[in-house]
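Exercise 7.
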Amino acid sequence: MIKHRTVYTAFDKAATLKVKPNLIGKTLVLKTDVNLGIVLIPANKNLDKNKFRKIARAKKVDFTTERLIKNKFKGVKVGAIPPFGELWKTQTFMDRGLFNNPKIIINSGDYNFSIKISPAVLKKIVPNLTIGNFSKSRR
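Solution. The predicted structure, written as tokens, is:
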């Protein structure tokens, strides 16, 4: 666990911890035609919805509402959701760009704490983690 000042974005977390944004996992919650999905991409990237749609085998993919997040993800703060989908019976996806780092920093459920973890360990503790290429450079 890493304690830090209150941050609400992945870029603020990178600046606060004085690390490169590509080491910070940005958690997104997406709604597919089938279910919700927790998606982890590097903070310095954006989601490529078309690539993600193919990996998720979904016809439609979109961001979910804050209201739905508050109702579904009890016990954690909106914007600080950790990538442990099985806690909420939700699929977890991780961009391969994060997997190439020895350690990454992910959300813990709180704005003042983060988790530093190896991607290999994350893969072991998230049983149905799907790894793929679905991020793109920020514009």
